[in-house]
Structures are given as structure tokens and as C-alpha cells.
Specification:
By secondary structure, this protein is of the alpha/beta class. The chain is built from 13 helices and 10 strands. Helix 2 runs antiparallel to helix 8 and helix 10 crosses helix 11.
Length: about 400
């Protein structure tokens, strides 16, 4: 046996994975499905979760700081509702000094801005969270006053009317928050002297979609993320399993494997494409070897047997015009048949049963001048190849080598 080291053949492993690609894909799809089901079961794609509350907060905050119009009252997210209220404000101009020249438009803008800020002051939002016990809701468990203020959109319409719009996933909760914002504001506007009078013009509306919180709105990015993650997990686990199987199985795949044992690689027969042509090439090479009259062809195991090989050999020998005979080992009842055929032909080819499964093949070795063994790619185990080498190494029969059957 050769003392050369064997190495992990990446090229052959890629070929091995390609041969099992269907299994790899099935496992990847299964794990993708498992992770998708897990995400669905645990509400990862459900818009009525706290993720949607904070998406409302984020959309309004981003619109404000980016100075865009993408507020939720203009572009309402899927799975949400709105409650609207209107407040009338009679601003207090009493602080202006008599006879002082002022820009009335500028003063109105400043007073309007004060009103908008007072409407969603953090103190007001904290008061609403406490009075409505908003933190008792699962999706508002950690919500603070600053974050609640971003769920309230407000703007002035004309000189005296302020619109208040609350976006939420729960219809009743949206109504209650809008109602509280309006009522607290009218009280504080007068209390702090911002307005001589303030009153609710339109009470908070009750959204018609009262069950939005129970609707499932699919988050496509989250679905895609779970699918990809599941597929990658499946691929990784399958590749690890295939590496372990590939190494533990330790089968014959390359000429280097054949050389490692000590045999000479004698060619390849592709059984799915060019069996006849490859068989002719192998036999031509064998006949060029000076071995005598009798050639024994023996599969190492049942995997290495080639269907139709007898017909291919006979066809080749007929074309070569060599006086010959092809015998199956099961047709040989005793040695006299071989002796008779030897006297009548220039070449005899004996096709024996596989070495591993039948001991009968050994009895024909002594009658043969040369032996040619067949090894199945990816199926014949290295230990069986090594056993065959030990078995025939001490015989006087010329060992031509091993043909790799693909």
C-alpha cells in the first residue's frame, strides 16, 4: 500500500454535494418553512404588535426631522386607525402694549406654535399615560410621554381652529387619547394665558374599523428575513452532515484514491453516457499489455458491476477480428472449459462475480494471466479496495489495475 497521505478533495466534495442537490434543497425549504411558521406563531409578522406602535412613532418623527409631509395623518400605515378632534382657540392678545406697532400675522404664527407645543407637551402626555393606564397594554408596555407625543399629529386650520389626529392600532384607545389631548389642552390654554377662551369644537371621533388590532398585516421584509435565515440554517446543517458522511463513508472517487491503495488507475467507464466507447478504450489499453491469453475482469463489489458489459466486450472483439471468447463465471462448471477455450481462441475474457460478494471469483485467478478490477465511483469503499489489493497482491497473476466506473 502507498504511504502517501490522503487529502480532502474539495472538487470531489462539490461534485458529491451536486449529486445530492435535491436533498440539500429539500432540507433548506423545510427549515425555511419551520422558521416561517415560528415567526408567524410568535407574531413576528403581526402589525398589531408593539412593532406597529413604534413604526407610527418613527414615521412621524422622521417626517418632522426630515421636513417631509410623510406624517401618519397623511399616509396612514396599514393596520392602523385615526381619531380626529377639533379645538377652537380665542388667542389672548392682552399682553400687547397699547399703541405698540406689531405684525399681527407674526404674532398669530407665534401663538399658534405655542398652542401646538402645549398640545403635546411631555407633561400632558405623561398625564394621559397615567389616566388611561396606557402602559397596561402589551404593545405600550414601555411607551413614554415623548413617544406618545409622536402618535399625535396637530395643525392649525385658519386662525382659530386646531386639528388633533391620533394614530393607533386600537380604535377605542385612539379615541380616548384624542379626547384626552383635546380636553387637557382647552384647560391649559386658558390656565397659562395662551387663550382668553378655548373649547372643543368637534369631539374625538370613534374610528369605524374597531377590530384593526386583530388584523394580521404581513411585513414582507420580516417574512423574507425569516425565509432566508431558515434556508441558510438548512443549507449549513445539510453541508455539515454531508461533510461528515463524505469523510466517514470514505469511498473511492479519484485516481488518487486508487493510487493510494497501490493499484494503477486503468481508465474510466461512464455508464450513463459512453459505456460502449469507454469499454473499447479500456480493452484496447488492456490488449496493448503483454499478459498472455486469459484476462479476468472482476468487480470489487456489487456496485461496480456494469450492465451490458458482456455485449460491449463481444462487439469490440468482433470488430478487432480477434479469435476470442467471453465467459461469465457462472457458465464455467470446471477448469476443463477454460482449457478447451484457451486452445481454440487467441483471447479469453472471464467476467467474474464481484470479489466482495462471491468467493468463486478467486478460483479463476489461477487460470488467468491478468486481472482487471472495477471500482464504482462514490460507492466502493476504500477498505474494500484495500482488501482486494491484499487479496491479489501475492498472486502471480498480472494486475493491470482498477477501472473507475462512473
Amino acid at each position: 500500500m502507498s504511504d502517501k497521505n490522503r487529502y480532502f478533495d474539495a472538487k470531489q466534495f462539490i461534485k458529491y454535494v451536486w449529486e445530492h442537490l435535491f436533498i440539500v434543497l429539500i432540507v433548506a425549504f423545510v427549515f425555511a418553512g419551520i422558521l416561517l411558521a415560528y415567526g408567524y406563531k410568535n407574531g413576528k409578522f403581526y402589525s398589531g404588535s408593539s412593532n406597529t406602535i413604534y413604526s407610527i412613532v418613527k414615521q412621524n418623527r422622521d417626517a418632522y426631522f426630515n421636513q417631509s409631509t410623510n406624517f401618519t395623518d397623511a399616509y396612514r400605515p396599514a393596520g392602523t386607525v385615526e381619531s380626529r378632534a377639533r379645538v377652537y382657540i380665542d388667542f389672548n392678545y392682552g399682553n400687547l402694549k397699547a399703541g405698540e406697532k406689531v405684525d399681527s400675522n407674526n404674532i398669530l404664527v407665534q401663538l399658534s406654535n405655542d398652542a401646538l407645543l402645549m398640545c403635546v407637551s411631555e407633561a400632558t402626555m405623561d398625564q394621559i399615560i397615567d389616566e388611561l393606564d396606557l402602559n397596561s397594554y402589551d404593545d405600550m408596555k414601555n411607551l413614554n410621554g415623548e413617544e406618545l407625543s409622536w402618535m399625535v399629529n396637530k395643525n392649525m386650520q385658519g386662525a382659530h381652529v386646531m386639528n388633533i389626529v391620533v394614530t393607533d392600532v386600537d380604535a377605542k384607545r385612539a379615541h380616548d387619547v384624542a379626547e384626552k389631548v383635546a380636553s387637557i389642552f382647552v384647560d391649559k390654554a386658558v390656565e397659562f394665558g395662551l387663550a382668553e377662551d378655548a373649547r372643543i369644537l368637534d369631539p374625538a371621533s370613534m374610528p369605524s374599523e374597531t377590530n384593526v388590532v386583530n388584523k394580521k398585516v404581513i411585513n414582507k421584509k420580516s417574512v423574507l428575513k425569516h425565509l432566508i435565515a431558515g434556508a441558510l440554517i438548512g443549507l449549513m446543517l445539510t453541508l455539515v452532515a454531508l461533510i461528515i458522511i463524505y469523510i466517514c463513508k470514505d469511498s473511492v472517487r479519484t485516481y488518487r484514491d486508487i493510487e493510494y491503495v497501490g493499484f494503477i488507475p486503468f481508465g474510466t467507464i461512464h455508464t450513463k453516457k459512453t459505456t460502449g466507447i469507454d469499454t473499447e478504450k479500456v480493452l484496447t489499453k488492456a490488449l496493448e499489455s503483454d499478459f498472455g491469453k486469459i484476462l479476468m475482469i472482476s468487480p470489487i463489489d456489487a456496485y461496480s458491476e456494469i450492465g451490458g458489459i458482456k455485449e460491449n466486450i463481444e462487439k469490440f472483439l468482433q470488430n478487432s477480428k480477434t479469435k476470442s471468447a467471453v465467459l461469465m463465471s457462472g457458465q464455467i462448471s470446471d477448469d476443463s472449459i477454460i482449457d478447451k477455450m484457451k486452445n481454440e481462441n487467441d483471447l479469453i475474457v472471464i467476467l467474474s462475480d464481484d470479489i466482495k460478494g462471491s468467493a468463486d471469483s478467486l478460483k479463476f485467478v489461477g487460470k488467468s494471466d491478468a486481472i482487471l478490477m472495477l471500482s464504482k465511483y462514490g460507492k466502493t469503499l476504500m477498505r474494500d479496495l484495500e482488501d482486494a489489493y491484499v487479496l491479489y497482491d501475492n498472486t502471480r497473476v498480472k494486475n493491470l489495475g482498477v477501472v473507475l466506473v462512473d
